[in-house]
Structures are given as C-alpha cells and as structure tokens.
Amino acid sequence: MLSGKAAIAGIGATEFSKDSGRSELQLAAEAVRSALADAGLHPSDVDGLVTFSMDSNAEVAVAREIGAGELTFFSRIGYGGGAACATVQQAAMAVATGVASVVVCYRALNERSGHRFGQVSLAAASAPTTSGIDNSWHYPMGLGTPAGTVAMAARRYMHKYGATSEDFGRVAVIDRRHAATNPHAWFYERPITLAEHQASRWITEPLRLLDCCQESDGAVAIVVTSAERARDLPRPPAVITAATQGSGPDQFTMTSYYRDDLSGLPEIGVVARQLWAQSRLSAADVDVAILYDHFTPYVLMQLEELGFCGRGEAPAFVAEERVPLNTHGGQLGEAYIHGMNGIAEGVRQIRGTAVNQVADAHHVLVTAGTGVPTSALILAR
Amino acid sequence: MIAETAAQLKQAGYCTPRSGRDPVNLPMINNWLEAMGDNNRRYAAEGVAPPAMAQVWTMRGLHPVATPDDPLFAMTAVLDEAGFTAVVATNCEQTYHRELRLGEEVAVRSRLSEVVGPKKTALGEGYFVTTESTWFVGDEPVSSMLFRVLKYKPAASTPSPVAGDPIRPAVNRDTAYFWDGITAGELRIQQCSSCGSLRHPPGPMCPSCGATKPSFVVASGDGVVYSYVVHHHPPVPGRRLPYVVALVELPEGVRVVGELIGAEPRVGMRVAFDVAAGLPIWRPKSDLPPLSIEITPTFVVSSALATRDFQDVHHDRDLAIAKGSKDIFVNILTTTGLVQRFVTDWKPQARVTSIAIKLGVPCYAYDMLTFSGRVTSPTTIEVVGRNSLGAHVTGSVEVADA
User: Fold this and answer.
1) Which CATH superfamily is domain B1-159 in?
2) In this protein, which residues make up the domain named Thiolase N-terminal (chain A) (predicted)?
3) CA-based, 20 to 30 A from A154: which of A289, B49, B138, B244?
4) A201/B227 touch (CB, cutoff 8 Å), yes or no
5) A242 touches chain B (CB under 8 A)
6) Helix-strand-coil split of chain A, %, nearest 5
C-alpha cells in the first residue's frame, strides 16, 4: 500500500560539532532550508513538518523561521531515537494519502553543549506520567543512564551466546573506519583499533567508552514528497520501499526487562517483518545496512532480529563484515543526530554520492533507536 | 630510589628468622578463642592451635624491636621519605600447611615479594608493597602469608558519595502497595485478585483478564541474578562509584531490579532481598548461618590484645582519633580470626587450610559486623563481612573437609 508511493527528494544538515554556538531552532531552520535547496524546492512548497517529541523546536516555529506558509500536516513521534525512521514513515503516509505534498522531517539538537542524554536525569523518575512510574523501577536503583539500561541486555546477550567485549568492539572499529574517510564526521581521519576499544574505560560494564556513541550538536532534515514528483526534481529519488514502526509485547522504553528473553530486540523483529512484507525483499537483498548504533551490542542484536544471521551469530557476521555497515561512520563515528544522519546516508548511497560508496547500492536498510519503540526504512533507487 | 630499594630487597630474599616469644600454648589459645567468641572444642580435644592464630605466635608485642633486615620495615622507610606516608592493608592471604601443636616453637622469615606503583587509587597515589612470610617449626614450613599494603600520599579529599540527593521513585495509587512493602521490609508482587496472575512492574489493569482489582503477595525474597551491570560513569547523585545493579528473577516468576551489594556479581548467583535507604536491594544469599558480631570497644581491645597486636589505634581512642580515625577499630588478625570462626561455627570439624581476604572499609567500635558466605566448591567458602560503612572484608576460605 505504502511501498513506492513516496520518496526522499532532498537531504540537508548543519555541520556536526560539540558546540554549535547557536540555538536548536537555528540549527533546525538551517538544516530544513539546506534540504529544500538540495531537493530543488522552496520553503513555500512545504505543507508538512514532522519531528521527534523530544525535539525542542515546534513545527510552527520551524515553519516561521524558514518562511513556510500554511501547513496541512504536522506530527511528532515519541520514544527518543526510535522516532527517526518513523518521521519519514509519517511523511510518506501523509504524502501517499494526499494530506500533504512536501513534508520535511527534522531533528535539531545541542546534545553536547546543551542537554546531554548520557547524564543522570533526576526529573525522569519523578514525572507524574507512565514514563515516570516506569523509570521508578530502575532510576532510583541506580540504573539511570542509557548506557546502564543497555548494559543490562548486553550482559545477558554475552551470557547466553558467549559474546565478548571484543565482539562489541568490532562494531565500533567498523564505524570509526568509515568515519575516518568522511570529512563531515566528527571522527574524520581518526580510526580506532580493537586494542584501543579494549583499553577504553568502563562506562557501565560491560560497555566501554568506545561502545557508546558520541554526543553531538547538529541538525538533519529530510524532504519527502511523492515518488512521481520526486522524479521531476534534480536529485535521483530515494524511493521509500518500506517504512515501519514497531513496539513489542511488554514494551518499556529502554528497560524491557520483564519479557521472557532479554537477549533480543522484539521491537526490531516487529519492524523487520513489516519491512520484508512491504518491500518483498529479504536481508539478503540489502546492499547497505545503516543500523542505529547508540551502543554497539544493539547493532549485533539488530542483525539477528532483521534476519541477516541466526541468533547469537552476529559477532561472527560482523567479524566477517558480511554486509556494508554504517558507511558514514554511524553515530559512533559521524555524529549523534538521533538517527536522522543515518537516513541521510541511506539517501546518499541510493544516489551514489556517499563518501564510502557501495557499488550498485539498490536497497539500503536504515533503522532507528533500539531498546525503545522503534522504526525502520528501506530505500531503493 | 624506590625501585632500587625494592630491587635490592627482593634480591636479598628472606630476612633472618625471628622466633616467637612463647611456644604454642594453651593460655594464649584460650584467650584468643574467648576474645573471638569462638566456642569450637576441636582445638582443645586435638591439642592444636586455631590455624588463624598463625601470625599471633610471632607478633612483636607491646615493645617491638625493629629488625633492620625486615623487608617491610625497610620498604616503609623509603616510601615514607618519598612522601607516601599513609598506610592501609589491602590483602592478607594465609595458607596453613598443618595445624600447630601445643609446645611447638615457631619462627618467621619474611621477604619482599613485589612493589607495584605508583598507582592512582581512591585513597591517593601510592605503591602496593607485597611481602611473603613463612613460619617454620625447625626446618619445616608450617604456614605462609602473602601480605599487601598500600603506602600512599593521602589525596586532598577522600572518596565520598557524589553530591546531591539520591533519586526517589515516583509513587502513585497503582504502585503505592510496593513502596509501602519496602517500608515494611517486604517485597510485594502485584497479584490480580480475579485471575491470580502475578505481575511486576505492576499496573492498574490485569493484562491477562482485564480486572482492575489488584492485590499483592509477599515474595519469598529469594532470587537469582538474571543479568547485571557495573556502573562506573557518569556520577550518580548520592551514590559511590562503582556500584552493581542486578536484574533478579524470583521463583514466583517475575523480575525485580535492585542494587546488588556485597559480592562480585555473576549471572545465576543466588541472592536475597533486603531493603536499604528505602529501596529494594539484593545481597548474596548466605549458604552459611549468618554471624553478627557487635563491635563493642571491649571487643576491639580484647581481640587486638589476644592477637598480641598492641598498635594504639586498636585500643586507645584518643590516639586513634588523633590519627584521623573515627574510633578504635578491629585489627586484621581479628578479622582473619572471625572469618575462620564464621566457617567453623557452621562446620565445627572443618580444618581451615587457607584464608585469603581483601580488606575494605574499617570496622570501628560501636558498629555491627555481619558475615555471609557462599559455598562455591566442596572445599571453598566465599565470605563477606559487612558493617554500616560497607564491605569490611571479602575473601575466600579453603577447608580440608567441609
């Protein structure tokens, strides 16, 4: 139904830094304008805006800044980085149903110079909401950071499958190798070795510093329009072949510890089944995988849930590099823009303009935040 | 200078033997057993000394005379001069080749085993100095000890919890029963009063049958570690780093998160529920009957003297405070004796063949020291002794016949 109806016609971003020196609204407006210019469209063409519920910039504020006129569609997605690909899904649905014609998805954050997600949030456990109550089973007990919550699942994965810290480290080494040749990446020309990963300090065991993505300032915007219209625009369209959201049974945000098994990501499984059904593809057809990498262990679990390999086989799969992974450097290497920079990389691979271009990339898989209700896309030529 | 002295001392090997003041004798054994509160009758019946007394026989007494070639004395002098003036014992590993019999004369020889440093520690920068001592009866080695101290430059500030109040839970009408249970010292699991399903974390509507009349059962408090993390970074308000958080599976079929205190964590470890600071926590489940010792000043003084340890910090409160302590505190030989007693109270016929302990927080007068233990092999017992400040001693005891 949705497959093939919409396409990404433009991508834009600010520079990725540790201190942008400007407001998040300015970052958002710059990225949106840059994406529209890339698409060969004008702010007045925009009639829809989508972002994360965590974004601090209201759709109308961004619309004012870029000089857009009337909006017929605006929407926000929850659950942190799990929202990334879902913003594009919302946009694609709006375009496919005729609710809007040009929808821009954006995410802007001063995550390093402003509010840092990796610090312990006192307020998170005291909110008079279901999230506050959920967090109250974990934060007061000392489990109050994203790394801490992921470490719990990572330890169980190690216990069940015999995975090691080196297995996690190989994901970081691949990301940083790709970032090293990407001039837009924060870690441009700074690859790491597995030994350096092993020597990096503990954050929350079993996670080391180099298992954790960086903290970044920056913004990314993605322009979605109908596939038909996109073909008339300057850039080769990245057709949205599949766009999915998913949450699993007994789902929590980062702390789904009460399911039978803690060594997988059922919400990615939900997304995966829809991806393959919508696109009529399988993991074997994927030419490039941009997998959300806020923490390395979840990259391994995603590969298994998505069907690239069997349960517990991801360490070997990654060691052999059986699929090109996070060719922009991922969030460990390029920047942490809550997964939106991964979508931009997917578009570049389809266009053939990526710095680490995979030859004849026809199908690119992009996933969003893991350990939370999530989303994913398949982009195609 | 430090490295050169260490090399010279290592090269020199064992120092000259130093004899005990008295042969192995019943009055000292009885004083020691009385001070430890140890009622084990095997020693009297077999005419042997408690193994943990090994070092007592050669203690230097009230008026110690320095022996110039004692490696720890020599190393201490050099480190003092270099500004590493403070000292804390970190490890004591004693191996008992056989039990000593009444009347035997014991002598000890020591050598420097290694000096490692400078290392950054929580207390300050310092050197770990390890010595090895062997006790002989004639030419026969009867017991040996590896003893490690940290000689350090006291850091400007001692480690303390991160500033700020600990994170408190949000409580609402759906979850109040749980927190009321914590206040009452019990672990409550939500139970649907319609279909009986258990659930944690809880909610207002039973996902199995849709009823909205939740009740609760009180859990046994036993559990098994399903997974765990060790948090090192970033700082967490009101907490000392690092700390362990465990996801624990209960026999009732639900999982509960809580800090794990008092043991090296591992998946599958059996733990028991407890409450600390208004939060559920987990402690290693003791396979041995717990032993709690009220640390009165009398206990500290009498046990220090019964081990022939006359250092002022163990009997003179004024001097202890003048040296920066809160009060007089338990000496290491007593801690070793209590670790032995904890095991032999449980298995009175067991012959202890080694005690390897790691020393943690001090055990001051007016505190309570509580031991718990786990049997990890037919001959191995892992022991933890905790007081209000944390883990005072963690270690492992080997027995010949448990």
Assistant:
1) Hotdog Thioesterase (3.10.129.10)
2) 23-227
3) A289
4) no
5) no
6) 40, 20, 45
